[in-house]
Input
Amino acid sequence: MKKSYDLNNLKKILTLSILILLCVTPFVALELKAIAFLIISLFGYLRSRKQVKKISIAVFLTFVFLIIIGVANDLIRLGDAEIKFPIYFFISVFSGLLLSQTYSAKDLIDANEIMVSKLIIVSFGIHALTLVFPQVLDFGWDYTYDGTTRKTLVFANFAFESGHYTKRFNYIAWEAGAAAFLLALALARRLEKYSKFDIISLVIIIAIFGTRSTAGLIMLFCVLLLYIKLNIKSILLVFLGIAITYPLLIEDINYHANEKIGNQNYVEGRYGRYEVTIEEFDLKDYVFGKGNKYYDDNYKFQNLGHWDSWGQMLQRYGLLAVLLVLLFILKSNLAWIYKILIVMIFGSQSLWLTPLAVMAYFSQNKEDYK
Output
């Protein structure tokens, strides 16, 4: 029987697809995501009953060490500790420990490529329809995320700013940057696996432009630089894509030039948080961070908490956490393009304790990458 029809393989793809959805969906609270991650991981581990790898235990204990340091930092600095985030941190890495005995990060990447390939035409098609006929959004369901009311049409989510449709492609994610990451991962895996440029790949590329994510465009450039092969077919597909989407591309270029790179308020809002961190940190803070309670009571309360993973690690746990996480990513058995994409998205999105990221930390065995 062909692999695509193998029941066990189908179960694996469905399980990992659920984990990917949990990574980025705006419909499930963080606490419920952690519980679901734990349940799926426990179920998978109890079914396989594989012996836990020594390297996985070492990675897990390193993170437990970080969690303890964070709690101790709270107690020493403020005489009280914030418990909610350390519990979430522990559940995430413990779930990663269990799940990594059954699956690898590459399995998640494979499942993401399959899911994107199946959904992208429908999802981006819905998005394109709303650009031409915005009234289609009237049929969407309202939901609240990050203090704003948004809409969903199941296969595509839509964000609004001050009541106005942003026209950014969010795919099934909470935000366009997270969507661009999933799409870039899928494109890289698709080009790696099939060694050719096809219609699905073209739609994914157009969709990444549709996210209007600066990080997404940089990730796209990295993927194309590493994988695209210049032949007649690929060149024709590229020109076809440019011809079809030319008005959108021009609008996208103007958007990045005027609303992002050329917008001082955007630049200060996005990166001014690092200036605040640098001004407040002393040597001890750079090493161990300010702690979780200080983060919640000050940075988060004043809306100065970092949106990105690296900044959050620095504020909560210091350079110790940043360097350890970076080491685990770079030492993982993933192909370099995936390491690059993970490191890059960490500079834009808070994804460092989601299944996709945690599984990368635990993918330290060479035999996992096949």
User: Anything to note?
Assistant: The radius of gyration is 21 Å. Strands lie at 141-145, 148-152, 157-158, 160-161, 164-165. Residues 296 and 305 are 8 Å apart (CA to CA).
